[in-house]
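Honest question from a wet-lab person: if I give you the sequences of every part of a complex, can you actually get the arrangement of the whole thing, not just the pieces? Trying it with mine:
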Amino acid sequence: MKPRLFPLFWVGTALLLTLALLAFAELSIGAMHFSLQTLLHAFFDYQPTVFSDRIIIDIRLLHLVVAAVVGACLAMAGQLLQTIIGNPLGEPHIFGLNAGASLAVVACSALGNALLLSPFLRPLIAAIGGGLLFSAILFAAYLSRQGLAVVTTTLCGITLSAFAASLTSLLLLFNEQTLQSTLLWLNGDIAGLSWSALYAILPPFLLAIVVAFLVSPALCVLSLGEQVAEGLGVSVLRSRILGLCAIALFCGIAVSLAGPIGFVGLIVPNIVRQLITVQPRSALWINALMGAVLLLAADLCAQHLFGSQSLATGTVTALLGAPVFVILAVRYFR
Amino acid sequence: MLFPLATENLCAGYDKHQVIHDVTFTIPAQKTTIIIGANGCGKSTLLHTLARLNPALSGKVLLAGEDLSQLKRRDIAKRMSFLAQSSPIPDGIKVSTLVSRGRYPWQGLLHQWSHQDEQAVDEALQLTGLSAFKDHPVEALSGGQRQRCWIAMTLAQQTPLLLLDEPTTYLDLRYQVDVLALLRKLTQQHNKTVVMVLHDLNFALHFADKLLFVKAGKVIAELDDANDCTAELIEETFGVRTHLVTDPRSQKPIVVPLW
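Yes, you can. This is the full assembly:
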């Protein structure tokens, strides 16, 4: 209903400001440091021949936008996922979406079909892979006696994710060429990208946002049980399927851009739910902003915290997120 | 006369298993109608069919004269609310949030939370006496308060018609009386039409304006006055021999089993 601890407007403003600050840091800090003036020059008077302009626009801005999009996708996917399975521990990474998406992409790379490798298809292939594995996990958990209980779904998720990950490793083992091209990506890293890959995700990204926006109130009502939801006018099956599609698309986009990055989808929606808002649509865009902020921050840490030695972004989010998961799990099961 | 809810030769069931056989009755406006019957007689199925939680196999449910199967789910939800027997309570949800979910059918594609929604929720909280608890987590409430909370959610839906599936189950005596008194207040003072399934025969006889006796998927009796109830009817419905005494205060019958 009403915002909880913090009014929505100020949270949004604060997040936008933080995002702007982080964006500035991301653009200006690096092996070469750039002043605001140089940045403005690159933005408003871009010349491909000027070295600093190339670095700022073609490397750092690209990197920045990708990180923000991936963070937003993961957080929104996390929110939808947690509502759809009624489980605050729900997380795309744990529920197999990342593993399934990675497996699908690696399998397609191993097949070596040029069409399957095109950047325009990659997010969709990843989304289908993630969606399939996620559905398999839900189905496996559903077959158990407790149905979609928190413990069973989580365990099924972890088990089947591990299974998919080992299949991915097997594929890579037998296919050295694929290994070379995907190793960094598989650790969850947002380096080595192109603007064309970013444009490729634009249509599915917009589609997923529209679907998520339309379906999130219905999913929220569905967490009160199917009968209550139907009584409130929700079409149960349609809402679930649409929700699954949005989750799969978000994760597919995130994975195809940056590889499997964990825990953003866990931390952010929980913070939003506990501290800011439980209204599904407001939560959606707050999640998007906060996800972008978190991933940008993690990315900055990954690049600069250890001097010249840069880490994969996924490593940093896992470092941050694993303790949060443990805390949430302990609180939940106490 | 147009009834808020009625059935015409209704047959219903789950999958291909027919449970309700050729049932025709009407629900009077602004009254409490109580459906009673033995376990497994189909009374819950009947209620679910009235709420279109499962479809009619043949025949019709008429919502204010309109065929229910022709209406959109969301439009039905603006005119009729349904309270399930038991529902999961999401982790950490606050009373006001749960009640606000009742506004779902009124929120369009782009429409966000409005002043009108806020007002409907406040009213529902007030009617159910939960205003003081609105920021409490639902899990922290007692059983009776939780049930009030769910009722408040259906009230926030602002429908003239309320369908409730055994709203007093799992509650102790005090909260059973509490919930039924609340529902009676809704019909008498707030123009609501209430239809519910109830297990307790004596409560049903006391609170109902109309009684539907269900046996093996058929309505075997429709009573407009509890005093028309006979021991024979109860024996036919439940297979238990009883005798009826009259409550000296309310002049309503009380059923006592012949032990």
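Two things worth pointing out. The mean pLDDT of chain B is 92. Chain B touches chain A at residues 48, 51-53, 72-78, 81-84, 87-94, 96-98, 100-102, 104-105, 107, 109, 112-113, 118, 121, 153-154, 157, 163 (CB under 8 Å).
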